[in-house]
């Protein structure tokens, strides 16, 4: 089992949710207002007058076989509008209850 942590501009919310829904990723936790800045070229997302946009984040636990498909779809979404920003990180899950 893997955890996928996805951070994204709030404008991506519906598309990210659609990707998860379409791939039967039923369980997740969602944070609506996340501040941050991309590590490469991303503009700040601070919710301020100067930088008004905000990020969101989702973490979902998936079967190993789902990871590559989800990452591919998320990467395609990011490539459609790279200025908005979207990143996904994968961790191993050792145990769960």
What does this structure look like?
- The structure is a single chain.
- The protein is of the alpha+beta class and 97 residues long.
- The chain has a domain at 15-25 and 38-53 and 64-84.
- 25% of the residues lie in helices and 31% in strands.
- The protein is built from two helices and four strands; from the N terminus they run E-H-E-E-H-E.
- A four-stranded antiparallel sheet has the order 2-3-1-4, covered by helices on one side.
- Helix 1 (13-22) runs antiparallel to helix 2.
- It is globular.
- The mean pLDDT is 92.
- InterPro entries: N-reg_PII-like_a/b, N-reg_PII/ATP_PRibTrfase_C.
Give a quick set of tags describing it:
97 residues, globular, 2 helices, single chain, alpha+beta, four-stranded antiparallel sheet, 31% strand
Short description:
The protein is α+β, with helices and mostly antiparallel strands and 97 residues long.
Write down the oligomeric state.
single chain
Strand order of the largest sheet: 2-3-1-4
Query: Which residues form runs of ≥5 with pLDDT under 50?
Result: none
Largest sheet: 4 strands, antiparallel
Structural class, from helix and strand content? alpha+beta
Number of DSSP-assigned strands: 4
Q: In angstroms, what is the radius of gyration?
A: 14 Å
Helix fraction by DSSP (H/I, runs of at least 4) = 10-25%
The first-to-last residue Cα distance is 12 Å
**Could you say which overall geometry the principal axes of the C-alpha atoms support?**
globular
Average pLDDT, to the nearest integer? 92
Number of DSSP helices?
2
Strand content: 25-35%
Order of helices and strands: EHEEHE
């Amino acid at each position: 089992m893997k955890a996928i942590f996805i951070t994204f501009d709030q404008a991506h919310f519906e598309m990210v949710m659609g990707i998860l829904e379409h791939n039967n990723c039923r369980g997740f936790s969602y944070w609506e207002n996340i501040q941050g800045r991309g590590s490469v070229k991303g503009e700040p997302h601070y919710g301020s007058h100067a930088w008004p946009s905000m990020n969101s984040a989702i973490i979902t636990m998936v079967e190993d076989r789902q990871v590559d498909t989800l990452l591919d779809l998320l990467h395609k979404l990011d490539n459609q509008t790279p200025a908005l920003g979207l990143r996904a990180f994968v961790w191993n899950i050792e145990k769960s209850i």
